[in-house]
Write a structure and sequence with these properties.
mainly alpha, 2 domains, about 0% strand
């Protein structure tokens, strides 16, 4: 987004502005960026709903099953990592683990 992008004045309640401000701080972005991210996400959800609503029950069920399978695989990986962590010597558990730069700012 640049300064040349169109400007749009908007009135909204103070309570909502405070929520946006808090979310923007938590996500380490400006209030404008927070509002735009949330607006984009609402259109993404709307598009996904539109796609899903046109699918047959069988196809929808298969999508759900595939997602459950992916979630189970992820859960198995997390359990395996936890078991490795629990089996590790105590001296290695006390290290400070810092997030990688690529994981910062992700939603």
């Amino acid at each position: 987004m640049s300064r040349e992008d169109p400007h749009f004045r908007l009135r909204f309640p103070e309570e909502l502005r405070a929520k946006v401000e808090k979310a923007a701080e938590a996500n380490r972005r400006s209030m404008t960026a927070e509002i735009l991210a949330r607006l984009e996400r609402s259109f993404d959800k709307e598009q996904r709903f539109d796609i899903l609503s046109r699918m047959s029950k069988e196809a929808l069920l298969q999508v759900a099953i595939d997602q459950i399978d992916r979630n189970q695989e992820t859960l198995a990986e997390i359990r395996e990592a936890l078991e490795l962590f629990q089996a590790a010597p105590a001296s290695t558990k006390k290290r400070d683990i810092k997030p990688s730069p690529s994981s910062e700012g992700e939603e």
